[in-house]
UniProtKB/TrEMBL annotation:
The lineage of its organism: Eukaryota, Metazoa, Chordata, Craniata, Vertebrata. Keywords: Chemotaxis, Disulfide bond, G-protein coupled receptor, Membrane, Receptor, Transducer, Transmembrane, Transmembrane helix. Belongs to the chemokine-like receptor (CMKLR) family. Pfam families: 7tm_1. This is Formyl peptide receptor 1. SUPFAM superfamilies: Family A G protein-coupled receptor-like (SSF81321). It comes from the Eukaryota.
Length: 343
């Protein structure tokens, strides 16, 4: 077959794969994150760490709860039957999840950094009330960054049987030169801002924090041997988030190149036809991964498998708290020894 027909041949398969992955993300995400919210909210003592994980689970649960709308839209061959408001809300919730999740991971990384580098300060100032206030601040920032998607999302009736939900960056149906230029400018601004503030900047902070943490741990071998488990779950969450969302951001940049280029590229068309749906599916799957990580990365996994999922999650979170407490004590002891030596 010719190259120009490749997207047409692949589209049905990509369409089916997307539907399967969206549905899988919905089922696993709602059940898994709902269980995490239940365990942390009603079965465990509230601590700084559980505040972080609770907010992460709420962000993922909120997003996956809206996934049936996307599944329906895709199943109806991109016909949106839910009206303009739900079109706006559904997309906004998706990006609210992106920004809230990544900035909660930033907060967790900074929290770990402070606990290692300034353990005495952290012991005196680190508490649940302040953690809750920081979490509230994260949600406010995430709402501000996701607000443009509510503004620019729109619906259009393509035919009597099809209404599409799309980004109307010009907020107009005109195709005059000035309107097209405005549309392209806003499109570029949205994607570049999302890439920088939703990916590059957060992961720069995260990587910097853990680079300093590793440096401090290497200077203290005893501390390093006692601190491997407290970082295991959060490291896995961060790596998983990066791997799931990186293709989405890369495809967004490729899409931007296509729309801002004066010449059409058949290769870009092929990449976008196949890559964008798959990258989006992978990003959606991230919202159901964390509960699985909480269970599978706990100690004595074989024993936990024999127990109920609820009990397994509860034990997994208890391990995080216990190991973090042990690690913190070892940091304080190490700090005291250093101070006594200096005196």
């Amino acid at each position: 077959c010719s190259g120009s027909s490749t997207p047409g041949l692949w589209s049905p398969y990509v369409h089916i794969i997307s539907l399967i992955l969206y549905s899988l993300a919905f089922v696993l995400g709602v059940l898994g994150n709902g269980m995490v919210i239940w365990v942390i909210g009603f079965k465990m003592k509230k601590t700084v760490n559980t505040v972080w994980y609770l907010n992460l689970a709420v962000a993922d649960f909120l997003f996956t709860a809206f996934l049936p709308l996307t599944v329906t839209y895709t199943a109806l061959d991109f016909h949106w039957p839910f009206g303009k408001f739900m079109c706006k809300l559904n997309t906004t919730i998706g990006y609210l999840n992106l920004f809230a999740s990544v900035y909660i991971l930033v907060v967790i990384s900074v929290d770990r950094y402070v606990s290692v580098v300034w353990p005495v300060w952290a012991q005196n100032h680190r508490n649940v009330r302040k953690a809750s206030c920081v979490s509230l601040g994260v949600w406010v920032v995430a709402l501000i960054l996701s607000a443009p998607y509510f503004i620019f999302r729109d619906t259009e009736e393509k035919s009597q049987d099809q209404t599409v939900c799309f980004n109307n960056y010009a907020l107009s149906d005109d195709n005059t030169t000035s309107v097209i230029q405005l549309r392209n400018f806003r499109h570029q601004a949205i994607i570049i801002t999302r890439f920088l503030l939703g990916f590059v900047a957060p992961f720069t902070v995260i990587v910097s924090c853990y680079a300093v943490i590793i440096y401090h741990l290497r200077r203290n071998p005893t501390l390093a041997s006692q601190s491997s488990r407290p970082f295991k779950i959060i490291a896995a969450i961060i790596i998983t988030f990066f791997l799931c969302w990186a293709p989405f951001h890369i495809m967004s940049l490729i899409e931007l190149v296509k729309f801002t280029s004066d010449t059409s590229s058949e290769m870009l068309e092929h990449v976008m036809t196949i890559g964008i749906p798959l990258a989006t599916s992978l990003a959606f799957l991230n919202s159901c991964m964390n509960p699985l990580l909480y269970v599978f990365l706990g100690k004595d996994f074989k024993d936990k498998v024999r127990k109920s999922i609820l009990k397994a999650l509860e034990i997994a979170f208890q391990e995080v708290e216990t190991d973090a407490h042990t690690f913190k004590k070892s940091v304080d002891t190490s700090q005291s020894k250093v101070l006594n030596t200096e005196v």
